[in-house]
Amino acid sequence: MARPSVHLITSLGLSLPYWKLAKYALAPAVAVGVGVFVDLDHLADFVDARLRKDRHLVILPLHGWELMVVGWLTWLATGRRVWLAVACSAYSLHLSLDLLVNKPRAWYGYSLLYRASRGFDPKAIWPDGVQTHTWMKAKSIWQLWRFI
Known about the structure:
mainly alpha, 0% strand
């Protein structure tokens, strides 16, 4: 799993050209806000895993190539605003890192439509059929900090 600290460092690195070249002072905040906090959607899976003892789903409502496409199309349609370019870049980087580190069966494992069409079943996404995130072993939401 690409840990939040990895997403933090890469998001900050991504923000530097926007900050320096585009003179956009909020670039680091926007990049970190999107590039790191998109992982808050894992809370949906964490809660689901606690409620369903027999079957765990991989919902990840904010992890989807479709959302990336919508973001970039919005950027084009709204006059190519710098803050939206930073947000879309950070989101695209986040998904790409997750794809490389988490190693789903195929790139479309990060498609919301694909996951929904498979009933959000982890076996359709990961080769061993198990979500490889170690944070899922946390007994309570308060133990999640150990995995940062």
